[in-house]
Amino acid sequence: MRRALVVSCIALVGLATLSAWVWHLYTRELATTAELRAALSDSRRAGTLTGLATVPPVEASAREPPRPPPAVDPSGASAPTETTTMGGQTGEMLRDWLERERRMMRDPAYRDSWRQAQRERFAGTRANAIRVVGMTEEQADRVVELWIDRNLWFMENSDLAIGG
To answer: What 3-state class would DSSP assign to 27?
Structure first.
């Protein structure tokens, strides 16, 4: 009986310590969030953010899971959409466009130029990540590279998105 009491007390102390540690992390996260929101608000008021649209806040319960944006063609041409096609051939045109992009991505020179165009496209986002979020240049570069890799993966595996 005494042994069970000692084990229970040790478990209680451990749980109390764990709860205090989790509470500390939670309050630290709240403080960081408040600082980031204040910095973002100041930047919006000063008009120093580039490439960001002002979006009203959304309640957490009303949010949908994020959907990844489509990959971007470095030539500036977008993938065929319903508004750019005629005769209901959207799916076929989209498959043809994606297949052409996949073939072109096999060329290392094209792939490198596509990646460079993407880096230039994300230059404003990178600058904002450094200034507003407080990332180092290396961290911001890594985020941009991960974003580019994700877009490249979607381009290479896009048949999942069109059901083909």
So the answer is: helix
CA atoms within 13 A on the CB side of 58: 8
Angle subtended at Cα 65 by Cα 128 and Cα 139, rounded to the nearest 5 degrees: 30
Amino acid of residue 163: G
Q: 113 is written with which tokens?
A: 């130029």
Measured in Å, how far apart are the chain's first and last C-alpha atoms? Answer: 66
Alpha-carbon 59 to chain mean position: 19
Is-contact 105 75, C-beta < 8 A? no
Query: Each residue of 148-157: pLDDT tens digit?
Result: 999 888 887 7
- Quote the CA–CA distance of 45 and 65 in Å, as a whole number: 29
Q: In terms of pTM, does the model score above 0.70?
A: no
